[in-house]
Amino acid sequence: MKIKDKNIVITGGASGIGKAMAESFSHHKANSIVVVDINESLLNETRKDIDAIPIVADVSNENEILRIIDIAKERVGNIDIFCSNAGIGGAPGLINTSQEDWQTIWQVNVMSHIYAAKHLIPSMIKQGGGYLVNTASAAGLLTQIGSAGYSVTKSAAISFAEWLKITYGERGIGVSCLCPQGVSTSMVNDAPQVIKDIVSIDGILEPSVVAEDVIKAIENDVFLITPHKQVMDYIKMKSTQPDTWISAMQNLQSQFIDGISAAAPEDYNISQEDE
Fold first, then answer.
1. What domains are there in the chain, each with its CATH number?
2. pTM of the predicted model, to two decimals?
3. Which of 54, 55, 130, 239 is the most interior residue, by most CB within 10 Å?
């Protein structure tokens, strides 16, 4: 799908990858850009840089997704491209996570994608087509050392995007799933140093580079977007040599164990006691 003259909605669009997407869509002459974010002050700053329609919303709430869609359609007409980009890192580890921790990260990282798709796909099919861009992470393809919640939800997001592509891809619905490693966003820049060290192993990309990869994927109907090219090699190793892959990841974990155990001591400082 060509970007020119399209109406586009981006969640998590006031900073990081989402803002870079909005800037790239504008550069490629989209007709209208609706930027959604929970942070109103960031949205106001974004409006200074991009000619966009701002919506303050919490995408973890299905009614809020419906409100976003209704406002966008009222302001610009049919939605051609919807980017479910909002996401959170969540609590580290596993042992000390709460039900609320899991519910929060699940709602934002997975259910927001599901809400958008279920309420957009019928109208997109009726209008002759549409495109969904779902931001996940290379952590969903591989794993995220030190964070069960992030690994699980990003894996689920990829699985859902794949299901959408299989189910609706021949009915005019394009689907791309964005899976970067480290990107220079607040999620990475504000993370504990050990997380920065782990995600920067293959380099930290600028959001603008990732956004251009998204543009190329949409215009060429590419499902899996991996801005870090090493990820495809990791996927091949994981699928053909799973035990070797796990051993390699355990070795990587051991290199950062001091920092990881400080972030999630309940998981990494468990000792076996004599009975």
1. 7-234 (3.40.50.720)
2. 0.94
3. 130
